Amino acid sequence: MEPSPSPEQSPHHAYPDHWEADVVLRDGGTARIRPITTDDAERLVSFYEQVSDESKYYRFFAPYPRLSARDVHRFTHHDYVDRVGLAVTVGGEFIATVRYDRIDGQGRPASAPADEAEVAFLVQDAHQGRGVASALLEHIAAVARERGIRRFAAEVLPANNKMIKVFRDAGFTQQRSFEEGSVHLTLDIEPTAESLAVQRAREQRAEARSVQRLLTPGSVAVVGVGRAPGGVGRTVLRNLLGSGFTGRAYAVNTSFDAGQESVDGVPAYRSVGEIGAQVDLAVVAVPADRVPQAVVDCGEHGVQGLVVLSAGYAEQGAEGRERQRELVRQARSYGMRIIGPNAFGIINTSASVRLNASLAPESPQPGRIGLFTQSGAIGIAVLSGLHRRGAGLSAFISAGNRADVSGNDFLQYWYEDQGTDVALLYLESLGNPRKFTRLARRTAAVKPVVVVKGARHSGSTPPGHAVPVSRIPDATVSALMRQAGVIRVDTVTELVDVGLLLAGQPLPDGPRVAILGNSESLGLLTYDACLAEGLRPRPPRDLTTAAGPQDFRDALEDALTDRTCDAVIVTAIPWVGENGEAETGDGETLAAALREAAAGGPAKPVAVVHVEMGGLAAALAAATSTAAPRPRTTAPGTTQEPRPGPESPATALGAVAEPAARLRTPAPDAARATAPARGTGDTAATGDPVPAGAGAPAPAGTGGPGSSAGRIPAYPAAERAVRALAEAVKYAQWRRQAASPGKVPEFLDDTIEEPGAAALIDTLLGPGPDPRGRPLTPDEASELLARYGIAVRPALPAPDPEEAVAAASEFGYPVALKTTAPHLRHRADLGGVRLDLAGENALRRAYGELTELLGTPAELRPVVQAMAPRGVDTVVKASIDAAAGAVLSFGLAGAPSELLGDTAHRLVPVTDRDAAELIRSIRAAPVLFGWRGSAPADTAALEELLLRVSRLVDDHPEVVSVTLEPVVVATKGLTVLGASVRLAPPPARSDLGPRRLPSY
Fold first, then answer.
1. Cis peptide before 966, with omega less than 30 degrees from 0?
2. What is the mean pLDDT of residues 910-938?
């Protein structure tokens, strides 16, 4: 058990439990980082005894065989401000420590305001090389920053290359010198772009490796295998054997008879400890009250990961949630990660593994689609839908309550997995939306990520999902996913439809669609559907009902070679034979003709819409070859990468290679043709690990063994095919734009006073600020916004007509008279705003009308403001969501936009490209660009304003809410007429903090 804080700690600084964190190490195992307490004396001594003499020498610069009582006291007593020690624990025992002591300019012990500290590490030899010191450096640096320390100093012996490398590779700004036989290092521990990139690269490698360990075990123990046929454990064992698992399998049940040797031909044991050999993965299928015993058994004997199928956790209320938290704490303390609890299981179809550790009776065919679901029932439905339509999977994960391993972890894994071309996810909750969008953006840059989200409108977290509740509406979540390149769909059916198209076809170069087929009506339906989805269809080509397979082939070849189209949709109904009867059974013949045409044409996506064509969908999906792709023609008269001709056996469904100019960047064929020793393609042909991001595969359609490339997806309705194609078009456009990301213009730096704004915020919050924060007065808000170059047009209160006239005299006519009461604010439609008051008489008359119709001056709180140039009224907002982070929003002002929800959103910080897209993504955007002959608004000025607001909330997390309303955008320039700002103490941690696993 972890120790409780001791009362002997400093009376001024309580035990900082927010410094505790679970982390994933380089090899995929987990460890816990926590502050050292006075109760850790025995652990410290035991840890030190297991450190080699060489490591002790490197730490103390002299032989130091054991710690004295004084040393133990010093290293376990900290004030958590000037003296801090952190430990890394596995199984409750220390494997590494780090300590800092605040020092002054002469290297002597000091207190604040001294901002430098001496830091020293010690890692047990058995755990060196696992990235322990790197993780500790991230965390001790975050602790030091919190305590006002800005620099670390360290003395390292020249021979201690490992420790020098830890400091050198951290990405912090540093200086090195050689003094008196040692290397003196000074690190500025403020985060930099390089240190953040290093941290996230390490996070990706570690979390991807932790998933790989779960999906590629060399041995599996099923804990809870029943003695009689039936039951969950016995079912999983049967499925594991049925999949042809290439590793070793074991059956475990504490109730087995002492003499029982096997179950279904698998060695049987009463505990994992009795196996006597390495067990990589344990599938736990015992009642919830017996799971802790199973976890201890697994943890004590080196199991690397758990799949917990057992129910009875957070889905059953508060008691179950606490049981779930304890399960995660217990497993992580042993360095294990968990899929589940209440999981359906995992599948890996790689030929080198063939793992089915799930309740699915049959493994899907090998393919290049990765599927993650948070629901077993939805997982079954998607598996069934993909199977019926001939699609294979690289991996399937049904995570249940996903108390530990989540969709974020699998995005980390699929990013560099060369066996997966398309990632499909069914999500019911997002535990860390900001991290999800960050990971999804990076993954979507190399392969499609398709998401369907359940529980969108329930207003609560689904049962079993103990995650932070986000206040942002689902429309905002969808917009943020789009910003990250995620393909967001609404239903499981659409998830399958889009996944099939992306897995089997190349990405389109644009929205131009050719439509051809033997039904004029079906062609028109497809044409209308294309227009509804924002595509640019050409008039349908009607081949007439007399058209045969050869006519379809010729027409498709023509369409593919036509440079004015980017994609082709083929519509087909049964054709009428010579005897006048509909021939419904010739789907295979038509499929062969379509495949032959697609095989010889340029790389353009093809989809088929069919009605009652027997065997067509199955024939289009069926693969007859897993040969490596051959070159294919890219345009008439040019041969860049020709594909097999009709005489080749591969033409039924040959793997389609991408032209070099396409968006995809397929991994080398050799790497795919040579199966790795184990895994789903995470090693190159040589068996060497592939560096993170190196050779990251492109999306589907790239070919290779087991590839679904070249399979033409078939749909029973035009709307489904068109919607899938439309998503592919939007994703391809995002990919092209993502290739050259936007930036924050440098000219903003000259007009932004970041230090001045920070000082003002500190003053406004004051000492001991209210955690709930405080709204700023109009004058305070204007002053803060001015530091970021945002001018707010002043307004003067008008509690009576005389004050109104005085204010107008100060501004000069014409003026506006506005109410600021909450129920009337920004509601010109209710009569609370009077504009263009040209003189005193008009102002007094307007004042009297307002008070007569709407209430007393005390109720209305009227103000007078100078008129702004006419333009389009807009609204700019920024807010902080506890889960998603800072979100920037834009829309037109007024009730219609509010009623229709016509608001666009982007995550902060936004780039110039984000700002431009934000303005153009609302449905009412044409109003800003000269709609119906009006003068176009100054959108460049509006984009600059969005960038300034983004910088403000990004630079200062204390700014939790900004609303600029209205912002009148004229033909030249804009005017901010109203502003409200709210400040609050920033959260203790942010997305820039050190790596840590979530704890719910």
1. yes
2. 92
- Taking the C-alpha atoms of residue 969 and residue 876, their distance in angstroms, rounded to an integer, is 12
The pLDDT value recorded for residue 648 is 30
On the question of pLDDT at 54 being above 70, the answer is yes
How far, in Å, are 44, 100, 142, 269, 977 from residue 19 at the CA level?
19, 15, 9, 41, 44
- Distance from C-alpha of 894 to C-alpha of 681, rounded to nearest angstrom: 54
Of 600 and 394, more confident: 394
- What is the phi/psi pair of residue 202, to 5°? -65, -40
Q: Dump pLDDT digits (tens) for 749-770.
A: 788 999 999 999 999 998 878 8
pLDDT beyond 90 at 474: no
Q: Tokens 């389609």: give the residue.
A: 656
Q: With 0-12 CB in 10 A as exposed, 13-18 as middle and 19+ as buried, what is 248?
A: middle
CA distance to 111, 686, 845, per residue, from 166 (Å): 27, 28, 75
Closest C-alpha among 211, 568, 582 to residue 404: 211
Average pLDDT over residues 73-91: 95
- 3-class SS at 924? coil
Q: From 703, 599, 710, 604, select the one nearest 645 (Cα to Cα).
A: 599
∠ CA 848-854-858, nearest 5°, is 80
Are the C-beta atoms of residues 533 and 607 closer than 8 Å to each other? no
Instruction: Give the model's pLDDT for residue 579.
Output: 56
Stretch 864-884: mean pLDDT: 89
Match 């190349």 to its residue by tokens.
Answer: 506
What is the model's pLDDT at position 582? 52
Nearest Cα neighbor of 122 from 78, 158, 154, 77 is 154
What is the Cα–Cα distance from 299 to 207, expressed in whole angstroms?
A: 19
Token pair for 666:
């397929």
pTM of the full structure: 0.82
3-state SS class at 177: strand
C-alpha 853: how far from chain center:
52
In angstroms, rounded to a whole number, what is the distance separating the alpha carbons of residues 23 and 33?
7
Report which listed range, 387-401, 571-585, 676-690, is most confident: 387-401
Give the strand pairing for 345-348 and 355-358. antiparallel
Across 316-430, where does the E strand assignment appear? 337-339, 345-348, 355-358, 366-373, 393-398, 422-427
Both structure tokens of 845: 């008359």
Distance CA 348, CA 242 (A): 13
Say how many CA atoms lie within 13 Å of 156 toward its Cβ: 24
Query: How many CB atoms are located within 10 Å of the residue 694 CB?
Result: 10
- Mean pLDDT is lowest, of 180-194, 370-384, 449-463, 710-724, for 449-463
Query: For the sheet containing 262-263, what is the strand order?
Result: 262-263, 266-269, 248-252, 219-223, 281-284, 305-308, 337-339
40-44, 566-570, 585-589: the lowest-pLDDT one: 585-589
Backbone CA torsion sign across 58, 59, 62, 65: negative
Tokens (6 digits) for 840: 């005193």
Grouping H, G, I as helix, E, B as strand and the rest as coil, residue 117 is strand
Taking each helix axis as running N to C, give the angle between helix 433-444 and helix 718-738, from 0 to 180 degrees, rounded to the nearest 10: 90
> Residue 178's beta-bridge partner residues?
183
* Average pLDDT value for the chain: 85
Cα 437 to chain centroid, rounded: 4
Distances (CA, A) of 545 to 519, 609, 614: 6, 15, 16
CA dist 238 to 215, 250, 276, Å? 18, 12, 23
**Omega cis (within 30) before 539:** no
DSSP secondary structure, 771-829, as one string: TT-EEPPHHHHHHHHHTTT--B--EEE-SSHHHHHHHHHHH-SSEEEEE--TTTTT-GG
